[in-house]
Amino acid sequence: MKDEAFIRGAIPMTKSEVRAVSVSRLELKPENILYDVGAGTGSVSVEAALLIPRGRVYAFEQKEEGCSLIQANAQRHGVKNITVVQGKAPDTWEGLPAPDCIFIGGSGGKMTEVLERAFALNPSVRVVVNVIALESLHQIMEYCRAKEVEPEVSCIQVSRACVRGRYHMMEGQNPVYVISFGGLQKEVKKEEEENVAEKRQIPRILIASPASGSGKTVITAGLLSLLKKRGIACASFKCGPDYIDPMFHRQVLGIPCCNLDRFFLDREQVRNLFLEKTKEAELAVTEGAMGYYDGIGGTTFQASAWEIADITETPVILVVDGKGSSLSVVAQIHGFLTFRPDSRIEGVILNRTSPEMVKRLKPQLEALGISCIGAVPVCEEAKLESRHLGLTIPQEQEALRERLEALGDRLEEWLDISEILRIAKGAQALVDAAKEKKAPGTVQEIQAKPLRRMGVALDEAFCFYYEENLEFLQEHGWELVFFSPLRDQHLPPALDGILLGGGYPEVYAGQLSANVSLRTEIAQAAASGVKILAECGGFLYLHQKLEGMDQKFYPMTGVLEGEGFRRERMTRFGYISLEDRENGTVTGTSGSIRGHEFHYWDSTNTGRAMYARKPASQRGWDCMIRTETILAGFPHLYYRSAPEWILQFLNREDDR
What we know:
Largest sheet: 8 strands, mixed
Structural class: alpha/beta
Oligomer: single chain
Mean pLDDT: 87
C-alpha cells in the first residue's frame, strides 16, 4: 500500500518499502492474532489486518494522537478487526489472547521485556522488529544470540523526493533494519499437533446488552425463530445459570440449548462443551446475561457474557435500549467498545427505537468501527409477560410460538440479517483439541452398572432443570422417565430415583395438594429407600405444608419436616459453592459442588448438611438436607462442577 493511502499526522509512519518487507516477514495467516507495538499511525496494523480477515490486530500506541490516527486509518480502509490500545506494552497486554505474530516499531525502552513477555505468552510467536539506531540493532542481536536464535536481517535505504522550486531533490534517510525470527517449529511437532487437534469453522454470534431488560432475550428468540424458518440448523446457548430462557429455545422453538457458565466450569470445559454442542449446527447463537461485562461479585469479568465470548472467540452483537435517547446511545456504545481492549463487539441493534432514528444515527455508529444492523421499534410481538421469577414459562403462554414467529417476520424487515450472518461467518475457526475427550465434567472411568430409572417431575409446577444435568444422569446409567405431579395419579413403575426440580409449586399449591395419591406414593418411595434429588421448588414439595400464592397453607408430601412460606422479597440469591459439613463443622473441602439460588419462598427447615459460600464475598449460610437416600435444598446444583461428588450420593448403597 502507498503511503498516500494513510492519514498522516505528526506521528512517524512506517514507510511503504519497510512496511512491505515487514508485513511479508510476519508470515501472516487468515486467523492470526497480531500485536503491533508502537503502532504509530497504524499503517502496519491496517495492511496486516487486511491479510487476516478472520484474525485480529491489537495496535498498542502510547500517544493519544497516534490512537486517533489508527482509528481514522482503520475506518478509512473499512477495517474492523483492529483493536486500539493506548498505553505502553507489555503493561497493556493483560487479558488479551496470546499473539501469533508481533511487530515492534517502537518499544519505549522495553524491548527485552516486550520480547520476553511475547515468548512467555506463545513460545512459537513470530517476531518482526524495525530499528534505526545501531544500539537497538545490537540489543536485538544480543538477545537472539542469548536465545540461540538465528535472525534474518535486512537493511533498507529509504529515500524521498522533495520538491524544491522547479527541482525534485533526493533526501536521504537513516537505514532501517528489519529483523525477523521465531515462529518456526519442527515439522514433526506440527504433524503431532495436527493429529491431536483440528480447527473447526463454527459460524456464531453472541447477543449481549448493557443491562438486563434491554431486550436481548426477546430479540434472541425472534432471531432464532427467523433462522429456523430459513432452514438454518441452529444450536443455542445461554450465558450464566439461567434455566428459564433456555426453555424458550428448547420447548417453544425446538432448538437445542444449554448453559455456558464460567462459575460452574473452567475455561477449557466451557470451550469443550461449546464444541460438543455445535457438532451438528450450521450456526450457534449465544444469549448473554445481565450487562455484557457483569461478572461475579459485581467487580470481576468472571462468568460474564464477555468472558464467554472471549473463551469461545465469538463476535458480539450489542442490543441497546434506545428509548428516550438519541446521540447519547452512540456515547454509550463507544464506552462498551473501549472499556475492554478486546470487546469483540462487531454490531449493534437498537431496541425500542424507530427506524427513522436509526437511519440518523447510523453514520455515527458505524464511525465507531461496528455495523449498525438496525432497530426494533416498540411492538406487540416483542412483549412477553413476566412474573416474580422472571419470564413466564412457555407452557403457560398459548400463543407464544406464533408470537415469536411473527416477531421473526418483523425482524426480517427491521434488521440486516445478511450482516448478522456475515459477522457470524467471520468468526475464527476453533481448535478442537478435545475431539476424543468425554463431555466436560464426566468421570473417565465408570464401573458398568445396570440401567436405572429416574422419575423426573416435569410440568408447569416443576420445570427448572439444567439440560446438562439431565444429560449427565443419562451418561451415567439413568433412564429418565418424566411424570407430572399436577396430573398423574401414580408414579412411573420401578423407579430407583426421583428428581424434583425447581419451578412454581407455590402457584399450583392447591392442585398439587389435591393430588393425594401421587403425594402418598412419593412419601412411600422415600420411605422405601428410593434416591430423591430435590431442588428449590421440588424441595418445598417435600415439606409438610406449603404456602400458596393465595396465602393459604396446603399439605404437601410430608417427606421432610417443616413448612414453606413466602418472604416479602427475594432471599439468598446468586452463585454459591457448597461445602460438606461433618458433625456440624465445615470440612474445608471448598467447592464440593457448585450451584445457584434464586427464590422468594423460604423454609422453617432449610437444613445444615452443607454450607453455602458466596464467591467474592464473606457471606454464607447453612443449607441442604442429606441422608443416605435424600439430597434436598434450595440450591440448584450443577452436577458437572463436581461429578464424583454427585455420583457418590447416587451410587451409595447401590447394591442394597
